[in-house]
Amino acid sequence: MIRIYTISGYEEVGKNMTAVGYTNGGREEVVIIDMGIRLDRVLIHEDVNIQEFPAKELQKLGAIPDDSILRDKKVVAIVLTHGHLDHIGAIGKLAPHYPDVPVYGTPYTVKLAKSEVKSEKYFEVKNPMYETAFGEIVQVSENIAIEFIGATHSIPQASMIAVHTPDGTVLHTGDFKFDNNSPLGESPDYKRLKELGKEGVKVLIAESTRVAEPTKTPSEAVAQMLLEDFFLYEGREADGLIATTFASHIARLQELIWIANRMGRQAVFVGRSLAKYTGIAKQLGLIKMKGARAVRSPNAIKKVLAEVSQARENYLLVVTGHQGEPGAVLTRMANGELYDIGKRDTVVFSAGTIPNPLNRAQRYVLETKLRMRGVRMIKDLHVSGHASREDHRYLLRMLNPENIVPAHGEFRMLTHYAELAEEEGYMIGRDVFVSRNGYTVEIPGKEGQS
Ligand SMILES: [Zn+2]
Ligand SMILES: [Zn+2]
Questions:
Q1: Which ligand lies nearest the alpha carbon of 33?
Q2: Of all residues in the chain, what percent carry a pLDDT higher than 90?
Q3: Sign of the CA dihedral with 223 first, then 409, 93, and 5 last
Q4: Looking at residues 287-292, what average pLDDT do you find?
Q5: What is the 153 CA–ligand 2 centroid distance (Å)?
Q6: How confident is the model at residue 46 (pLDDT cuts 50, 70, 90)?
Q7: Distance from residue 6's CA to the centre of ligand 2 (Å)
């Protein structure tokens, strides 16, 4: 019997955690997939410092998954799909609940998880962490093997995870899009997915974030074109240029470096998180920083911004704060700190707004402040990292899974996925299971089938 524990991330975009259990009558073996955090639940409380908060309190705030359903189970592995915080951000809090259980992920993901764990103050995380390659199959217990399948997303080395059991394979998509022209040269492993489709997929756990968009998500190459179309033409005549995007979006940051090089400007990444994500990416050869530099310490930031404000036409600043997050560099600039941002500057938002009320409000405040200072803004030079409806349909037709559990979304996103599945011949309650946080979906084994 296979059980899917839909622990968290089934009522929101954030704090993802799913577990796959297998038993043939003996003690159930369980693989955990992802341990994410939901930052907006923390940010609304000004007095909460995540690093110093225990798991129980953060669970009460709804900021990290409530994993109590797993506490007496035999967990054999913790697997990470990719390095975004809504997938790895709670590992410092929750991995200690499963002492000695090994953690697996691709190199970039594991290095980010390690840095997450290092900043943890409340617990010591002793779980061994192993870097895995795409195509690698790891036997994690007597009955279960896990496999990493290459995907494309808005962070390097995102993976789909196949959990192979004697009752069949469970495929978890992680976050993905089908990008056939990734500027970093990554590509989805269609070949392996088609093979799995032939071998048979017992359960597909599919992310649902953008399934309501009736299209195919454009390639990251389109975002690169949007940026070039501004920077390499009008941008050349501009004075101060400030771009803001996700610190973990290495492809986008690489494009900004290439563009700065072509403009004869130096790209300067300002802020701690940009330095962290690009630093680890550089170690792994995932980004080439030639023509760019990253500054992280408050003193270095002050110094470099003073330099830039004297000769704006020589630089392309890349900063955090596209969601108006308090404390981020762009937010502080809009408040009149760090740099005299104004009429001479253009701010390029290479990011969408993360759709939750807190982000919307913060972004509104940020834009209003920038506008009041006379800053010119260019918004939405961005494409999403998530699959749209037709990408999902393509995956469904490739895999032809027996059962489907929509994941990674608010209730309405999961039901949009179920609607797509019905178009493809499935039926809610029969072979499509729309679940909630903390519930279990039981998939009958071979003996259970009629
Ligand atoms: Zn996610
Ligand atoms: Zn993601």
A1: 1
A2: 88
A3: negative
A4: 96
A5: 7
A6: low
A7: 18
Distances (CA, A) of 324 to 193, 242, 409: 39, 14, 23
Q: How remote is the CA of residue 329 from the centroid of ligand 2, in Å? A: 23
**Whether residue 422 has pLDDT greater than 60:** yes
Worst-scoring range by mean pLDDT, 53-62, 195-204, 412-421?
53-62
Q: How far is the CA of 119 from the centre of ligand 1 (A)?
A: 21
pLDDT confidence tier of residue 449, bands split at 50, 70 and 90 = very low
Strand 315-319 and strand 240-244: the pairing is parallel
Q: Are 222 and 187 in contact (CB under 8 A)?
A: no
The set of residues, in sequence order, having a beta carbon less than 8 Å from that of 388 and lying 6+ positions away, is: 177, 210, 211, 213, 214, 215, 216, 217
Q: Name the nearest CA neighbour of 90 among 107, 60, 66, 126.
A: 66
Ligand number, closest to the Cα atom of 208: 1
232-261 pLDDT per residue, tens: 999 999 999 999 999 999 999 999 999 999
Distance 83 CA to ligand 2 centre (A): 7
State residue 316's pLDDT score.
98
Q: Report which bound ligand comes closest to the CA of 18.
A: 1
Residue owning tokens 């000004």: 46
CA 175 / ligand 1 centre spacing (Å): 6
Alpha-helical segments (H) within 180-271: 190-199, 220-231, 250-263
Distance of CA 421 to the CA centre of its chain: 24
339 C-alpha to center of ligand 1: Å?
33
> Which ligand has its closest atom nearest to the C-alpha of 9?
1
More confident residue, 43 or 212: 212
pLDDT attached to residue 448:
46
17: CA distance to ligand 2 center in Å? 13
Alpha carbons 97 and 117: distance in angstroms, whole number: 14
Single-letter residue type at 344: R
Residue 304 CA to ligand 1 centre (angstroms):
33
Q: How far apart are CA 293 and CA 422, in angstroms?
A: 50
Contact 257, 289 (CB under 8 A): yes
Q: How confident is the model at residue 71 (pLDDT cuts 50, 70, 90)?
A: confident
Kindly give the distance from the C-alpha atom of residue 129 to the centroid of ligand 2, in angstroms, as a whole number.
20
What whole-number distance in Å separates Cα of residue 48 and Cα of residue 51? 9
CA 266 / ligand 1 centre spacing (Å): 32
| Euclidean distance between CA atoms 98 and 91, whole angstroms | 11
d(CA 435, CA 252) in angstroms, rounded, equals 34
